[in-house]
Amino acid sequence: MFDRLSEGFNNAFRKLSGQSRLTEANIREAMDEVRTALLEADVQYDIVNDFCETVVQDALGEEVLKSVKPGQQMVGIVHKRLVELISQGDSQTPGILKASPGPTIIMACGLQGSGKTTTCAKLAGYLKKKNRSVLLAACDLQRPAAVEQLHTVADQVNRDIPSGPAVQFYGEPDKVAEYGKAVGVAVQVAQRAVLHAQKNNIDTVILDTAGRLHVNDDLMKELEAVRRTVQPHQIMLVVDAMTGQDAVNSARVFHERLAIDGVILTKFDSDTRGGAALTVKKVTGAPIKFIGVGEHLDKLEEFHAERIAGRILGMGDVVSLVEKAQEQVSDEDAERMAEKMAKGELTMDDFLDQMRSLRRMGPMKQLLGLLPGVGQMLKDVQIDDKQLDRVEGLVCSMTPEERRDVKVINHSRRKRIAAGAGQRQEAVGQLVKQFEMVSKMSKQMAGMSLKGRVKAAKELQQSGAAASLPGMAGLPGLGAGKRSTHTPSPKSRFKPRKRR
Amino acid sequence: MSFLKSIFGKVKQGLAKTRDTFIGGLRSLLLGKRLDEDLIRQLEAKLISADVGVKTTMRLVKGVREAYRSGKMQTGDEVLAYLKDELKTMWPEQDRALRFADAGSGKPTVILVAGVNGAGKTTSIAKLTKSLRDSGKTVLLGACDTFRAGAVRQLEIWSERLGVEVVKGQQGGDPAAVAFDACDAALARGVDVLVLDTAGRLHTQESLMRELGKIREIVARKIPGGPHETLLVLDATTGQNAVRQAEEFGRAVTVTGIFLAKLDGTAKGGVVIAIHDATGIPVKFVGVGERPEDVQPFDPEAFVEALFEVDQD
């Protein structure tokens, strides 16, 4: 998401490295590129200028550290400032507070198409997992079928997220009217929804309001009326992460009229550089609470300024990756795998296991995007997860014996495997050949230094073996990967994909 | 293109809104002012704040700066004239009218509508449908958004309001199958235009982009020459990522035109210039409100005129 912003910073700091000290001239030169990167990332113009000026002043006062290169030192300063800007004044408590006495009332508002309804459902799911009872109230009486949509997603949340009390739905479909004709009715619906929650002892009410332009005075008044009448504990502004410079205007007006308590950024799984995050934060001062990272209703994550700033700087979101890996691979598994690789005893079954745990972590591209420095290289590369399907299909068509020792695969076996996987015989031959190569290589690599590993991985790519064994060659020794010093550089991990 | 002409009178009225927000600042910034470095910096800020994009802005401002330093340009008024010229030459002659099936073919025109989530596809389709209906064409809608909850119903409600029929499938069903059925229905009923609504998808979702490609292939197979128009609906509030959207959707389904939605806010819509620079895809329509009649054909000449022209009063 922030990949291309990171790219800009990297460019800027490449210029700085090699300089012996931070002078005003070279800082300013670097900041020019930072400025461009931020603007291209859609951070609002004035905010960009303020930010850059602060960084320059900071850097000027800074003594040049002997131990690090000027570029790295600047990264440190920019990173620190960026984190400050994104997390300024945030409380340490993430998530949604519980009001007492209840029910806790949350109101979601924002422009049309920012993703309010989906976000409300995701939020309901988030709270449900935390064992809170939620009432989703449909206060969007304008957009055709908005009430039905909320009802449907409420059911979906209950299906997709079984733990916790069932999410309930409140709507008055008979109050729906065409655009502009239902103004004000939403206030009463919101009121009745809250009463309904009180009567039924529901913990939290989430009000899904209609999308509106900040310049539409009537509709903004409606939100103000809802606010006065039901007094929500949290007013959430839902903002599309792809928003451009205008984020400054809409966020400002919403904040002025409603006093926003928190921000939820949606569609963060796009490749937007997401500068709107900085803009909205700066304008409202309200904490960015969550980010939406996918269409499915569990794709809502708590926002971490540190991580996002790290991504901006091209440091990658290693924390997320490690967390994901830990979810999927136990320490013992990792140890066992590392040992096997070292001894060259890797079997097709191990390979299949490894590939499957990789895949459980998410789509390859998303995964690799989390690696430092990889994101920007990946931007034009198509990573075909189907290729993994095909490899999996082939392995699954092998007998246990064949999986233990690929050497037994002869012509007739090859024919059978190909038929079983619905692929050509050559595909089987290729897989076997490449598997043997990777297996050999990983044995050698297990005893190598970091440098040696990188070199070996490069040779492996040149041999072409990597191309059809993405899980294996792309991330050599995922099992052993926990010993971070043995991990090859992101570049070498990435290269095979570019080749396709 | 009679239907375009019939509502052409509304263009100016709608663009006035854009002009006020987009260039209103520029006009007051430049007119009657002496040109200096400070004014050039303000000009740069204005363009960037309108989402024109750093690259395009820098190119425009560079021209101004050079002309200023060589003494060729001395007033803000000259800058305005220069920018107007620049922007006009940036839009080459392109057919911005909707493409229709050959009149003699007896086949329906198919318009495929795509875009990211929340861009405003369904509302834009309602607007398009009304325009087409008003120009005397018969329209059939295909509800290929089988993913989002309530999407089919949303299109249905519009179809009821506009008095057109809609072909739909099951929620969660195969959108390509709906496209298939919709093509069959369009052929059988002999309608003039079939408009296909698709699910919102982020351009980064490879599999969903392929699904869109499949829908396009189905249409091409059922109705040779179709889809005659593939419109990408873009939210005018979108920043530079809109360029990526245009590129990626262009790659997946060969976008033939852009429907720029939600231009009635304070968003300046300058990103269409950046999109044009990057992809050459013409903008065909702009959406300026919630009602089905809130649509105008996009005319770069008029657009630029409106951006820079000085009010008489």
Give an account of the 3D structure:
The complex is a heterodimer of chains A (500) and B (313). Chain A contains 23 helices and eight strands. By secondary structure, chain A is of the alpha/beta class. Chain A has three domains: 3-87, Four Helix Bundle (Hemerythrin (Met), subunit A); 104-315, P-loop containing nucleotide triphosphate hydrolases (Rossmann fold, 3-Layer(aba) Sandwich), CATH 3.40.50.300; 340-493, Signal recognition particle, SRP54 subunit, M-domain (434 Repressor (Amino-terminal Domain), Orthogonal Bundle). Chain A has an eight-stranded mixed β-sheet with strand order 3-2-4-1-5-6-7-8, with helices on both faces. The radius of gyration of chain A is 26 Å and the shape is globular. Mean pLDDT of chain A is 77; it is low at 1-6 and 463-500. Chain B has 313 residues and is of the alpha/beta class. Chain B has two domains: 2-89, SRP54, nucleotide-binding domain (Four Helix Bundle (Hemerythrin (Met), subunit A)); 103-297, Rossmann fold. Chain B has helices at 2-6, 9-22, 24-30, 37-49, 54-69, 76-90, 121-134, 151-162, 175-189, 206-222, 241-253, 271-279, 300-308; strands at residues 109-115, 139-144, 165-168, 193-198, 229-235, 257-261, 283-287, 295-297. In chain B, strand 5, helix 11 (241-253) and strand 6 (257-261) form a beta-alpha-beta unit. Chain B is elongated, with a radius of gyration of 21 Å. The relative contact order of chain B is 0.18. The model of chain B is unreliable at 1-26 and 308-313 (pLDDT under 50). At the A-B interface, helix 2, helix 6 and helix 9 of A face helix 4, helix 8 and helix 11 of B.
